[in-house]
From TrEMBL, chains A, B:
Gene3D superfamilies xref list: Pseudouridine synthase I, catalytic domain, C-terminal subdomain, Pseudouridine synthase I, catalytic domain, N-terminal subdomain
This protein's name: tRNA pseudouridine synthase A
GO BP terms: tRNA pseudouridine synthesis
A GO MF label: RNA binding
Alphabetical list of InterPro entries matching this protein: PsdUridine_synth_cat_dom_sf, PsdUridine_synth_TruA, PsdUridine_synth_TruA_a/b_dom, PsdUridine_synth_TruA_C, TruA/RsuA/RluB/E/F_N
Domain of life according to the entry: Bacteria
Database matches in HAMAP family: TruA (MF_00171)
Amino acid sequence: MRTLKLTVAYDGTNYHGFQKQTNALTVQQVLEEKLSLLCGEKIVTAGSGRTDTGVHARGQVVSLTTSGSIPLENLLKACAGILPKDIVLWQAEEADEGFHARYSACWKRYCYRIVQNKHADPFLRNYVWQMREYLRLEVMQEAAQLLLGTHDFSFFRSAGSVQSSPVKTIYRAEWLQKEQGELEFCIEGNGFLYHMVRNIVWHLVEVGKGTKSIAAFKSEFAAGKRHFKVAPAPPQGLYLDYVGYIPHFLADIEKIRK
Amino acid sequence: MRTLKLTVAYDGTNYHGFQKQTNALTVQQVLEEKLSLLCGEKIVTAGSGRTDTGVHARGQVVSLTTSGSIPLENLLKACAGILPKDIVLWQAEEADEGFHARYSACWKRYCYRIVQNKHADPFLRNYVWQMREYLRLEVMQEAAQLLLGTHDFSFFRSAGSVQSSPVKTIYRAEWLQKEQGELEFCIEGNGFLYHMVRNIVWHLVEVGKGTKSIAAFKSEFAAGKRHFKVAPAPPQGLYLDYVGYIPHFLADIEKIRK
């Protein structure tokens, strides 16, 4: 059996998220259907994590095992032909036996795009959070720094969370000023709770608008309790950007240690 | 009666072009429905020109007359609320009596976006022509210069053209190198034949790929005969960017002359 690691980009606009569901079209379902055709057997995939309806991915990672012998180059070419245009297979690699897109993942990067513009741009409606308000970048940057390190992120957890420890480590939380009034928030960490990034963005935007002080943000976050009243930032601004795995040689060292 | 000049941007992906049809959803139909609601009377609009299915506009101009008294500021705000998110009213102005989006237009600018990338980008699928081939910008630029001035553009006319003179004047025809492998072709002229911009782009791309020489391009164009074998460049790369009208004071001078 071969184990494959696929890197997939998708426009989430027309899907009910990544993960398979019984009664709604999802990215995973489409992928499995097409991969099954190409591999000549029923393919079951694992994704690095879910993404919600309307959320996008530039670098979702998917793992699978197959007894099929299709060369990776052919798989890439064939996928370009039979996948719908809003799902693209970027990369296909042979992986070590036991590699699992979710369980083997070490860290992830999410990005969130905001455009401050007077008039809504019809071409951005599915790809960024558009707002008329002016956001103060400096204070959002300052508040974002408070997220760095290991903390209880319960405050940014939405109801409906799968049970998992609310303690996560954030390596990077940074706003980037892009062209034409666009801001991009990049956050990297070893794990994320349900709606965590979108809830963080919502609160940082409150800080940027001046409706919440950095002190209030800090104390709410430190309290470590789930907040019921906030709406997460809208899904279309969010991108699962990259999923990081432990390099082979480090994994080998870990095996030797054990 | 008031005459209004509206500037509209739209994502043409989900419409059968701009112009009203009896059995397909078009941008003009949606605009007229919503404007009729806001003006309290049946509104009939004129657009500066048609755009095909999948073609976009950043600056389509629409004119209408109304006996309604809705202030322009309110019209803008209300449209932001009731238009679908893929159609945006950028600007609303009072215009002189007799102003007509099509007949009063002096010139137009179209832009065509091409992205050269190895893997298709799912986020660009509806907004650019994506191709794996590398295009030589210098030769496309050189060929584009041949379009400048007043010529018979029959060679770039598709079948199905509305009858109009094939002689048009082109003021600008220029390729711009943008970020991340993107090229944008900008063309400005006093009029355009059916599919003219997309046919021009198709031929310039042939030149850029090296499958057609500049000399061949030049002689085909000079022959002034419609070419049956070419497919126009795909619609999603094309944007109606700007429509130019004669300024008021010049129009007044013309009236005095008459």
